[in-house]
Give the backbone structure.
Amino acid sequence: MSMSAPYAYQVTDGGFLDIDMTIKEKDGEILAEELRSSESSAVISAPSDGRISICFGNKMSSMTSKDIMFSISGGKTQQIDTGTKEEQDEETKQMGEQIQDLFTKMLTVKDENQYMSSRELQHSQINEATHANVLYWAIFQCLVVIFMSIGQVYYMKRFFEQKRMV
């Protein structure tokens, strides 16, 4: 019996925001591999049930630590017990399928919400750093203008100063 599970990850801080990711089955077979990726989302499809290993590698920039937001939904979903086969009618089957579909979509919305909140955090950090840089540059420009003004006043005063020779 095969297993499928959606996953998503994003590098939120560190270096160039890239990382290597490998997903292996219990026998070592590689199910998915991505190199130097900053974010990804897909569905793992394993041909058999069992444990899988997910490995993140930081070989390219081992001196820089990385922060990763990672989410994976379990491969097995809960099945709703609607009674024996004889007791189930068509409406009950449809309702069970709709509830299962709704549950899957709710998990997807939850994952997307986590992804968006991590992106919001990342962009607010960039925004705050940019505001700080603009503030420092504006202060520097004000100081340059003040010193230039003082220099010009001094120069003009010396230029119009009358020197007498006696």
